[in-house]
Design goal:
homodimer, about 400 residues, alpha/beta, Rossmann fold, 2 domains, four-stranded parallel sheet, 14 helices, about 15% strand, elongated, PPi-PFK (chains A, B), kinase (chains A, B), cytoplasm (chains A, B), glycolysis (chains A, B)
Chain lengths: ~400, ~400
């Protein structure tokens, strides 16, 4: 039987609720008498290699609850992507500390780490239970209805576009908002939930699941601008042409000057700025503004879905339960059971690791620039309670006197 | 005596609470029996010229309350900056509709419009009461302790930096956040309120009130990075060198390539991207990220200060009271009377119009890269109740076993 020491770590990009999962593990583990110590590794797998552990058993439940409600990774994170040799080092440290259960909260890369460490332990005949706990704002883990962290980031994006739409209605023009998600468009698609009235933006949504054509884009913008006198556009940072070349790179080239020069073409404001320049130059629209949501969408404090908080806590709790009562390693997954309720299951890590989910076709409108009602139904309950709402003055026009 | 018709309009950039002032005017005006009609001009002064009026008297109080809680300008706004001829046209329309009271909610430009229209009416011996109602996220109106709209935008900036700091602590590196405010650094300075623990960011704050020196900046960043292993930086979009040249323009030139080429150097991501490139190139720091908060900081729905909401409502109410019970035109101003309470007074429009307030010296630390406690005391009550808070795990290290 596995020993009474557990180790938990957090990997990859932080989310608004990743500490809920950490605290879910810590508090649930305390309910099992056979668990003597709960260690946390600082800065993910890097902290394991460095034996940089803190003893979470000595935390108060009160402080754990406060940390649970704090965004970003309280233990620290890492971008290290362990290969087999790295995982072997991880395993050696786990062995030295007589860790019996290893919980790793993270996305794709983290699940792959769990997979390799699990294999190492089996090969060495060391009794280790390895559980991957899902987390990613990109919502790109297969086997999950959705992933913890995505609903809160989606809520930020929906609120950002609801506000940007109101701003754009007050001072009409074209607004381009660039959203995270290199391969999966879920977060960009969440912009659609910021829409209330039929003429609200976002009027156009560009996802990495569809090939981006610049001429088609300009025509779309022109059409919407003529229809509404304004246009709000949501763009995924991952848009690319048919060959897979990022649009930012293409635009920089097309503009025939060294726009953004040596400046990297992702993880900055280049795509938004270049698209805006293109619209100004080709469509002769004067007021064109672009924002790149950047880190705000994943790190802003005070924009969180209560559904996401609850589920992130639960995946942590369930991970411990699966580990203590179950007989195999795995990856905790969220299954939707009703509108709206969920349950959890333990998938084989191999089913999750190294795979990327993208938006299902049924979620993307036929025209390629909008989402479907199926997507709206999918996402709405995840955003949680207390979503801010926008209202308008009713239109009671006054008759003209001077210019009748 | 002035007629029983009033006209209200909204100008300049929208804020989170500008509709509170609109609704303050509309609801307070209904309490005066002699006011028969409350008109709203759509899209600011542009709507006056175009006689594009809606009758707010026909609104329900319930819908007005819902609109009050909706950010951005419900009547629409404009960037038109009226000159004397434009103001004459405004006056002609007010005269034709027998408007007796004109309320204009806006910043510097709007107060100047009120000043000129007021003079036009006096010259024509037309009985018109003109009141300017303050609004600007820049907090740059003289004669005011602060301006409605600023507290909510400041809250967004503080929350954004609180979150960015947590993200940066989890995945250490350098983070640059560029904040609005061309001449006044109040909004950028609000980033300091996102700080809780002594080693939290923002570690450096650059305001337009101080001359920006690139070498000094790089040295500051290097020092902080060495001290904390990371560095979070708040930068005003308005930073400039001793000659007043914007830093984005200087950097583009210094990098000796056409970075951002024909792309405009303000109102986009250029400054953040160029500063990040500079840090990477000169300090050899690998993980450097920049965000430009852009429109999010003024239009995000769901991040609002309740103090700001209340005061924005009150300036609207007081404007009507000053108009109905007073005997002169003016600009409503907020005066701080306690820690924390305010009262309102009517300043001569001439005292406000065409002037720009910048941060007082007592608010800026001697080193030029931080704010003072005086500023923290000034801003904290404005942010309102329910500010999200960040907590940390307490440090209970576990002894190393392998690498003792």
């Amino acid at each position: 039987m596995a020993s009474g020491k557990i180790l938990v770590a957090q990997g990859g990009g932080p989310t608004a609720v990743i500490n809920q999962s950490l605290v879910g593990v810590a508090l649930e583990a305390r309910r099992f008498g056979q668990i003597g110590h709960i260690y946390g590794a600082r800065h993910g797998v890097r902290g394991i290699i460095d034996e940089d552990f803190v003893d979470l058993t000595q935390e108060t439940s009160h402080n754990l609850e406060l940390v649970a409600n704090t965004p970003s990774s309280a233990l620290g994170s890492t971008r290290d992507k362990p290969d087999a040799a790295y995982c072997h080092e991880i395993f050696k440290v786990l062995q030295a500390h007589q860790i019996g259960h290893f919980f790793y909260i993270g996305g794709n890369d983290s699940s792959d780490t769990v997979r390799i460490v699990s294999q190492e332990a089996q090969a060495a005949n060391y009794d280790l239970r390895c559980i991957h706990i899902p987390k990613t704002i990109d919502n790109d883990l297969v086997g999950n209805d959705h992933t913890p962290g995505f609903p809160s980031a989606a809520r930020f994006v929906a609120q950002a576009f609801a506000g940007a739409n109101l701003d754009n209605a007050a001072l009409p023009g074209v607004y381009v908002g660039v959203v995270m998600g290199r391969h999966a468009g879920f977060l960009t698609a969440a912009s659609a939930l910021g829409k209330k009235f039929p003429d609200d933006g976002p009027h156009l949504i560009y996802l990495p699941e569809r090939v981006f054509d610049l001429n088609k884009f300009l025509l779309d913008v022109k059409t919407m601008y003529e229809r509404h006198g304004r246009c709000v556009i949501a763009v995924s940072e991952g848009i690319h042409d048919a060959s897979g070349t990022p649009i930012a790179a293409l635009l920089a080239k097309e503009m025939e000057h060294d726009a953004h020069g040596n400046v990297q073409l992702s993880g900055n404001g280049a795509l938004a700025d270049l698209l805006c320049e293109e619209i100004k130059a080709k469509l002769k629209i004067k007021r064109v503004r672009g924002d790149t949501f950047g880190y705000l969408q994943r790190s802003f404090i005070g924009c969180v879905s209560d559904v996401d908080q609850r589920e992130a806590r639960e995946v942590g709790e369930k991970a411990v339960q699966f580990a203590m009562w179950g007989s195999r390693d795995g990856s905790v997954a969220i299954k939707r059971t009703g509108f709206y309720s969920v349950d959890y299951e333990l998938l084989p890590v191999e089913d999750v690791a190294g795979k990327t989910r993208v938006m299902e076709d049924e979620f993307i409108a036929a025209n390629g620039t909008d989402v479907t009602d199926a997507f709206r139904m999918y996402l709405r309950p995840l955003l949680g309670s207390g979503m801010p709402d926008a209202f308008r003055l009713r239109h009671n026009p006054v008759a003209k006197v001077l210019h009748k």
